[in-house]
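Field log, afternoon session.

UNIT: design team B
ACTIVITY: writing a sequence onto a fixed backbone
BACKBONE:
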């Protein structure tokens, strides 16, 4: 999982490089991106439902920020154990029971699913992205790729406090936890959060 975000960016840049080399000006669609929730996935390596939920946000946010016109998660429904994409689906292949990634994907669509613009603000020890929706509502997405961080976002956000919405990573609840934080004292972990001005 080291440099996961950079791996995504490098993959995107490789395709963009081919387009640039041949003078092709076409939008890029990421038609299959996904992380398996299987503990011993040959595709994703050691994984979990929690990691899959985190990657639903990270993959879609990073590719969108790089310039992808559309990003598709692979996949929704059934995958067989012999398939390398086994358990990449966001519902269980046998029972169709939603995984945490299903509810996180739903939350992502609600928060930034129809954004007009996206801006990358930080890619150092913190990942911070600014999405502007059609109604001019701004939603930030942030996480700390390696070590937990407490960050001051007052450079980007004028309000004293922000509303933080956490993704859904466990089966205990299908509702996102929300809390207020001081704008100059926002806690980040490897798990992405959505941040909105209050």
């Amino acid at each position: 999982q080291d440099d996961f975000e950079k791996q995504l960016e490098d993959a995107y840049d490789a395709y963009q490089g081919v387009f640039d080399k041949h003078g092709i000006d076409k939008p890029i669609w990421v038609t299959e991106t996904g992380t398996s929730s299987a503990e011993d996935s040959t595709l994703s390596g050691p994984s979990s439902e929690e990691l899959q939920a985190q990657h639903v946000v990270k993959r879609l946010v990073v590719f969108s920020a790089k310039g992808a016109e559309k990003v598709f998660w692979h996949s929704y429904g059934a995958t067989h154990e012999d398939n390398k994409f086994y358990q990449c689906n966001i519902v269980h292949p046998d029972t169709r029971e939603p995984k945490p990634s299903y509810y996180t994907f739903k939350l992502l669509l609600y928060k930034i699913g129809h954004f007009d613009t996206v801006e990358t603000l930080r890619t150092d020890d913190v990942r911070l992205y600014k999405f502007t929706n059609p109604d001019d509502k701004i939603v930030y997405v942030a996480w700390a790729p390696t070590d937990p961080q407490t960050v001051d976002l007052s450079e980007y956000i004028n309000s004293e406090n922000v509303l933080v919405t956490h993704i859904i990573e466990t089966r205990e609840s299908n509702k996102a936890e929300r809390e207020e934080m001081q704008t100059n004292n926002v806690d980040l972990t490897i798990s992405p959060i959505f941040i909105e001005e209050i």
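LOG NOTE: The chain has a mean pLDDT of 95.
NEXT ACTIVITY: expression trials, pending approval
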